[in-house]
Amino acid sequence: MRRRPGKGALVLPPLLFVVALLGVPVVFIALFSVGLRSNIPGAPVAFSLSNWSDFLTGGGGAFRGRFVYSMEVAVGVSVVTTIAAYPLAYFLSFVARRRTYALLLLLLAPFFTSYLLRVIAWQIILNSSGVVNSLLWGMHLRPQGDPVSWLIYSTFSVSLVLFYTWIPFVSLPIFVVLENMDHALQEAAADLGASRMATFWKVTVPLSLPGVIAGFVFVLIPTTGEFITPLLVGGPNNQLFGNSIQAFFSATPDWNYGSVLAIALIVVVVVLTLLFGRFLQTDLRAEAEPGR
Amino acid sequence: MRPVSRIGSAGLAFYFWAFVLFLFAPLVVLLIFSVNSSPTPTLPLSGFSTEWFHQAFSNAELTGALVRSVFIALVAAAIATALGIVASLGLMALRGRALSMALTLLLLPLVVPYICLAVGLLILVEVLGSGPSLIAVVLGHCVIVLPFAILVIMPRLRSLDPAMNEAALDLGASSFAALRLITLPLLAPALVSSGIICFVTSFDEFAIASFLAPSGQPTYPVFLYASARTPALLPEVIAVGALIIAGSLLLVMLAEGGRRWAELRLVGANADTESVQSEAEDDQPPATVAMASG
What's the whole-model pTM score? Predict the structure, then answer.
């Protein structure tokens, strides 16, 4: 396309749109978090870090605990999901030859159906008189009316549903890396006498790490801010950090304290993105640079 | 030597198909219980019935929420796709640092947790004094789906042969005419993909809608969430849910099939090996690359 200098200015309207509807709200959250605004009429409005110090070091231990629990769940789910996704991507890339893209679509199709409906489906499967329990009763593997206690409203159920939600999506970046890999390298390893196992661990896996890390981040970032799954399949002890934020803006409104938690979550996610970002960045840059 | 042994291939195939089963099982469960006569979704099944569908479609609140969500998703998809075209055209003209910075900002909504954006927008509408409204929901959805639109449209735009646009300009077309007559028609497959992804994402979005939809005007996911906690409403929710799942699976298949078909036609029209190669490379479902955050 003929390059004319003025054309770059076309990004300005969309940029302004994002700044107005993402940047400005985040600035307001920040203002609320330091007491410069308040949703309670007549409350004193002045700069104050008391909510921050309460959350970080003071009486807000419950929220710190909730935060740690959330990160444990998010990291645990991300690790398990990434490991489980690898063989799926490997199958698609190296075994399913002609039907690769049809099978990839099969794997990804559930991802495009309603997220909320899938969580509701799991609620039906896991609840105390749900599909799994009634099946166990029907087969006389458990006494009638005695459900498996950890099946729902537990860390297990929250983690399982998050795993279910993200695994198709995590297999995608791994698949892309495996597909774009130079297969001559594996042939070379084999020609030089490496066994299949040695080739896999010493050539394929190291070369696919960018995709693995991208997949890991693809699930870590959204699960860090997750709050819908715990609402439907989590018990009171399995609510995540996102649920604390939600509560401060709905059931028991304290926008100032809620804003502290929201900013903390944004900071964590931004730090995670920066830490892992270069693995994603390479993808985006490659995409953005012309004539790759 | 093949990279995977025969036994290894069989094992991987088993693993893959077991996962497909795992992924589709909950969807099948919803489909089964949508036609089960018992009001509680539990085994053993009690008999075939279409009662829940009748009930669901005579529930004015449910159908109202559905219509509302369709409308919001259509508007959000149209606005985001339009902004996506503009942004992609602009990004194409940028290089280096300007490109990185603009791209980072435009893709930022992929990273910010929806719950934070939702409370931020709630604060914004309260500060502005307008309060929760469906317009606010539409605008919120536009922000979160804009990155998807850009990630789908931009690669397609880059794959176009610049000579076609130049030819139009040399033949005296204004740059707007070249855009309208040359670039946009060639972008059509990407625009359709973008529209579908944006529509589906907005239609399904819960966090922002739950904070910004006025009470009494829930979107479909907001209604769904409330009903999922009301046992009496659950069968109706399952019935409509089954329809939506069947519909969205069909849509995914059609969209992908249609895109393939359109691209094959374009490749055929170009018929030079270079573009065939780049098409083969672009064969990854573009939709999915964009769905980086849920």
Answer: 0.85
Domain annotation covers residue A17: no
**Closest chain B residue by Cα to residue A243:** B115
What does the domain layout of chain B look like in residue ranges?
Answer: 61-290
Nearest neighbour of B294 by CB, restricted to A28, A115, A245:
A115
Is A23 domain-assigned? no
**Which ranges of A23-143 would DSSP assign to H, the alpha helix?**
24-33, 50-56, 61-90, 100-108, 115-126, 131-138
Enclosing domain of residue A223: 61-288
CB atoms B93 and A255 under 8 Å: no
Neighbours of B68 (CB within 10 A): 20
Chain A CB contacts of B18 below 8 Å: none
Of A18, A19, A222, the CB nearest to B294: A222
Please classify residue A65 by burial: count the beta carbons closer than 10 Å to its beta carbon, then call 0-12 exposed, 13-18 middle and 19+ buried.
exposed
Taking residues B109-113, report their average pLDDT.
90
Q: Does B179 touch chain A (CB under 8 A)?
A: no
> Is B270 an 8 Å CB contact of chain A?
no
What CATH code is carried by the domain that includes residue A236?
A: 1.10.3720.10
What's the distance, Cα to Cα, between the start and end of chain A in Å?
16
**pLDDT tens-digit readout, A50-104:** 888 888 887 777 888 899 999 999 999 999 999 999 999 999 988 887 788 888 8
Distance from the Cα of A135 to chain B's closest Cα (Å) equals 7
Tokens 């409005």 sit on residue: A45
Topology of the domain comprising B61-290: MetI-like fold (1.10.3720)
- Overall number of domains in chain A: 1
Q: What is the mean pLDDT of residues B272-284?
A: 42
Distance in angstroms (rounded) separating the CA atoms of residues A56 and B289: 37
